Structures are given as C-alpha cells and as structure tokens.
Amino acid sequence: MAQEDIFKKLVAHCKEYGYVFQSSEIYDGLSAVYDYGQYGVELKNNIKKYWWDSMVLLHENVVGLDSAIFMHPTIWKASGHVDAFNDPLIDNKDSKKRYRADVLIEDQLAKIEEKINKEITKAKKRFGDAFDEKQFRETNPRVLANQKKFDDLHERYTKALNDSDLNELKQIIVDQEIACPISGTRNWTDVRQFNLMFSTEMGSTSDGAMKIYLRPETAQGIFVNYLNVQKSGRMKIPFGIAQIGKAFRNEIVARQFIFRMREFEQMEMQFFVRPGTELDWFKNWKSTRMKWHQALGFGEENYRFHEHEKLAHYANAAVDIEYKFPFGFKEVEGIHSRTDFDLSQHEKYSGRKIRYFDPELNESYVPYVVETSIGVDRMFLQVISAAYCEEELEKDSRVVLKLPPVLAPVKLAVLPLVKKDGLPEKAREIIDNLKFDFNCQYDEKDSIGKRYRRQDAIGTPFCVTVDHQTSEDNSVTIRYRDSMKQERVNISELGRIIGEKVSMRNLFEKL
C-alpha cells in the first residue's frame, strides 16, 4: 500500500478512536488547528512526562519553568522576531493556495533522493547478499545521474537560502518545473517574506492599548528568567532550564495533519554554559537526544541527523533529528548552539545586567546557550505513525497501535467474559484495585474477540479476561497486544506484571 494511503488511514484512525479531532468541526473546522480527544490527551501527557522526567529527574543541573504566553513586546524586538521571523512564501495564481518556497524545493530534493533509493532497493532484491551498495552508488548510471541532479539543486538552493535571494528561490521553482499540488499548474507569483507572529492588543481602552504578540516560541521566556532561576536556585554553570508550553505561528499550512499547526506545544530546554565550551555541549546533547528517541524502539534506521543548510542569525551550530514519516524524513527535534545572542540582546534592550558570576574564573560573563527543542505535536504524530500497523491474521485482519506500553493511553482493559454470574462484579473489583496505579478501562460490550480488536486499535497493551475459572482459583487470562499470546496468572500478580512493563524506568535505563 502506498505511504500516502497509509497516512490517510492513520488520520481517519485518529478521529475514529478518539485521538485527534478537527477543532470547531461542527462549524466546518478551523484550518491547521486540532483538538486532542480522550486517548490523544493521555498519549500526549505521557510523551510530555517522558520528556520532562528525562530532563529534570535524570539531570541534577536541569530545573523547570512555566513562563507566560503574553510577554513584553520589546522582547520580540530584542530576539529578532519582529524583523526576521519570516518565511519565504509563494502563491499559485490558479489554486489561490500559498506555499513555503523552501518546502517546495526540499520536497523536490526528496523526490530525487527517492528515485535513488528505489534503484538501490531494486538492486538489493536482484543481487541479494552479494549486493555492494557503495559500489552500486559509484557506478550505476541512473544513480549517478540522479545524484548529480540532487547535488546541483542542493548547492543552488543552499546558496539562495544563505543569500536570502527570493528571486533565485522562485527561479529554482520555475526551472525545476514544480507544480502546485492542488491545481497542477506552474502559474506562480514572486516569492515574498511573511512574518509569522500573531498580534493582539492589551489594555482597557483603545487609546491606551499596547500591541503585543502571542509567543512564537517558548525559549524567550526562559532567557528573560534565567538569572531569576540561577539566583533563587543557586545554580552553577553548566545548568539547564526546561519548559513545556504553547506557542503560536501563523503558518502556511502543509497537508500533513498535526505536523505543522498554528497553535502547538513545545518542549524546550536551554542549557547555559561557559563560553568556549558550547560546541562540546552541543555534541553531547545531540547524542543524548538521539538516544531519547531511539529508546522508544521504533528502529534506529528510521532516525537521522540533518545539518542545517542555513544557520539562524543567532546560531554557530544547528542540527535536526528527523524521523521517517509516511511522507518522508521530517524534523521532530532541533538542537542549536545559540551562542550568547539572546542574553546579550536582552541586556542591550532592557538595560539590565543579566550576567553570571563564575566563582571558578572569578569573573562575570554572558553565558552561551545550547538548546534542545521538540514539538509535542510532531512527537505525537511520530509515535502514532510508528505504532500504526495493519496485520493479516489466519482468519481475519486487525488494525493495531503498537504503542510503547509506557506511553499507551490505556494500560489495561478488564473484560468479563459474559455479563452475568458475578463476572462483571469481579472485573470491577480488579479495576478498583489497579486504578490507583494504571489507567484502566472496563469493557463488556460485544464478543470477547471484538473487544480485543477494539483495544488493539486503541493501543492498549494488556487485556485481562475474567471468566468462570476466576471464581474458582482467582486467576485471569492476560492477553498481550503485540503477540496476542495469552497466559493464566493470579489476580494478585497483575499489578507487578503490568507495573514492570509500563515503568518509565525501562526507557530511562536506555539513555
């Protein structure tokens, strides 16, 4: 099945099983804004807990913060967002749709790369164990031709980005004959810069109102509070401040569900270091963050680092961690060495000294910063994409979300075999005992087989069936979602068995 079709099924599955809904759907929805349903919010909270605890519990020198969404407007002038927070946009005159010019070109690069990968995949099947991929890449005429196309386009695109050459970006789109996905035509406008910040007004009267912005990132709330945290917590460099919070960007919407939204949530950690040590710490956090992703068990081959084509004005090093979504490798996390740009700018614009006194050096300085920034919603989509699975069985088929048990919204479903003979009461008793430790669900509707399938689709890792033998020996059948194997265990063992499987410690020990 084509990856695009799988992604459509995934989006439909998220709605059908209470993970993600279109916001304001009864009013025909609001573009690029989504609501998380009863299972979606549980999965989202579990992802946030995995990130938060891996940062704050596992690192003695990382603490938390929750800063306000509304901030003084001069902050965004100091950070460069007022003047430089722009995307290069291009409109198709026929469809009236607007696109990011850089995304259109990156998609074209991805198509060329996919052609190369298809040639390699075919050759692997043809030659089997004798296949030498390195030699094939260096000698096959079609691969070499496509590689040259890729390299030439990549070099031209990178130069245009670094030079902020909007005319050249449009010319690349024209020369590559890139068509609008909606109209199929190449009737493009010029490329223009478009500021992504939402603005509003704060004040009781129109004359006294102040223009402010919904924050486009959570990082600035950390920077303007860094000295408050450092002094009140007696923090010594190096130390980090972690934050989870909402941010808002007036994005030009890609057709990729919750991958890019106008209202989204970020998990960011700013790590303050001594100047001159930032690149070592950048390398360290790059490795640490990749381990965090790979610990979920979705396959190391599905992750890669992507070096930035153009560094932001504040950075001296930047890399993305990309995951292989059904629509290709895309960013889920960014790691940036932000130098001292942000803190120095806030010193300049606020007129306040926000330096750190280093007792070891007996001097004060503006710290350098290494940032790790991950989108909660993208991480949610990555987990769901990796977990979604359609399996053909001997007699039928099933759709299952093979979520890591530690992240699964519902940890345990308790199912009475029939709705009589005291079995429902016994099932309720089990839930009443385990609900303090796990998110449990009771289900008695339909046949036991249909209930298993329903829990598979939700992603519940364990189902416990209460039957007539339970009344005799206090045992139940526990069914494991991924293998569908069943075993008989005593009710008293359930807490231990499930607790061991869903403990965050299982992930943390891999980091």
Name a few traits of the molecule.
Rossmann fold; Herpes Virus-1; globular; 18 helices; 3 domains; 511 residues; alpha+beta; 24% strand; 5-stranded mixed beta sheet; 7-stranded mixed beta sheet; BirA Bifunctional Protein, domain 2
Q: Any overview of this molecule?
A:
This protein is of the alpha+beta class and 511 residues long. Helix content is 40%, strand content 24%. The strands form 7 sheets. Strands 3-9-10-16-13-12-11 form a 7-stranded mixed sheet. A hairpin with a 6-residue loop joins strand 4 (86-91) and strand 5. Helix 2 (38-56) crosses helix 13, helix 5 (101-127) packs antiparallel against helix 7 (141-162) and helix 7 packs antiparallel against helix 8. The chain starts with a helix and ends with a helix. The model has no long low-confidence stretch (mean pLDDT 92).
Tally of contiguous helical segments: 18
Using the CA coordinates, give the radius of gyration: 26 Å
* Intertermini distance: 35 Å
Query: In what order do the strands lie side by side in the largest sheet?
Result: 3-9-10-16-13-12-11
State the fourth-level CATH superfamily of the largest domain. Bira Bifunctional Protein, Domain 2
Q: Given the helix and strand composition, which structural class is it?
A: alpha+beta
Q: Pick out the low-confidence regions.
A: none
Query: What count of domains describes the coordinates?
Result: 3
